[in-house]
Design goal:
The protein is 31% helix and 32% strand. It is built from 6 helices and 7 strands. A 7-stranded mixed beta sheet has the order 1-2-3-4-5-7-6, sandwiched between helices. Helix 4 (114-129) links the parallel strand 4 (98-105) and strand 5. Helix 1 crosses helix 3. The radius of gyration is 17 Å and the shape is globular.
Length: 191
């Protein structure tokens, strides 16, 4: 097989590359399923114990950028090919031009800029290729790393849903963020 040249490739930047989810990525799903803190941050819940068959079934369902209910799943890799996370492009409403992005970075790769870099790729895709108007996101009120990332990307805090999420025996605030195409364009022109 010929070597792939990524010099002019839309789906990468200086830190990460997005690729289609492969059926073989079930192992990443399975092993990160044992980190309950990731489940709380990404899904606002505790998942049932991971199973090999469940991870394989999920990977088979979303492989090769297969859209599932408006969601498309990508693997996040370093430029050296290390699988560090998963990112999901979520169409909320094609009619209204709204979308979201869900992201999960394995604990050992958090805080290295991989999530922010992957988000930049999907924001560019949503706004510049899909003609979307707004990207919305919610974050647990105590998830300082995610709040910082959203602000760094130009999202504006639009509100707080007080005591909206129940986890680990108590209620937690949910912070709502939004990024419009105008704010996105303003943010990238400043850099």
């Amino acid at each position: 097989m010929e070597e792939i040249i990524y010099d002019n490739y839309f789906w990468q930047n200086d830190l990460v590359r997005l690729r289609s989810w492969h059926e073989e990525d079930w192992e990443w799903m399975y092993y990160t399923g044992f980190d309950s803190s990731l489940s709380r941050l990404a899904g606002y819940k505790i998942d049932f114990p991971p199973t090999v068959s469940g991870a394989k079934e999920y990977s088979k369902k979303v492989e090769n950028c297969a859209e599932q209910n408006g969601n498309t799943v990508f693997a996040i890799e370093t430029l050296d090919g290390v699988h560090v996370g998963r990112i999901i492009f979520c169409i909320d409403s094609e009619r209204h031009g709204t979308f979201g992005i869900g992201i999960r970075i394995a604990a050992e790769y958090q805080g290295k800029g991989y999530g922010t870099s992957a988000m930049k790729i999907l924001l560019r895709y949503g706004f510049m290729e899909r003609r979307m108007h707004k990207c919305s996101s919610t974050v647990l009120g105590w998830n300082e790393a995610s709040i910082k990332m959203h602000k760094k990307l130009g999202y504006e805090q639009e509100g707080i849903l007080k005591e909206n999420i129940y986890l680990n025996g108590s209620y937690h605030d949910e912070v709502c963020f939004g990024l419009t195409i105008d704010k996105y364009l303003e943010n990238i022109s400043e850099k």
